[in-house]
Amino acid sequence: MLKNFIAAGLVLIIAFSFNAPDTIGQTENSDAIAEAVAGLKLRSIGPALMGGRIADIAVSPNDRSTWYVAVGSGGCGKLPMPASPGSLFLMIS
Asked: How far apart, in Å, are the Cα atoms of 39 and each of 30, 32, 34, 36, 79?
């Protein structure tokens, strides 16, 4: 059993010692990358506004039940907490 273990270990050591470092991972070919992207042009592919996204939330230090919410498309709103269905989200800018 010990002979088999030693033999297997030697086979693994010999097998992995012959791998050259450049065959283990890929190298970057900057000329090929430059050629591949040469025909691409910068263009707009998305919406101009980030509607529906919350950008920031701030809680009033004087009244913890008042939250101010900034939205990604611009503007800030005031929301009384705890929010419930029917709570008013008042845009303030």
From this structure: 15, 13, 9, 7, 49
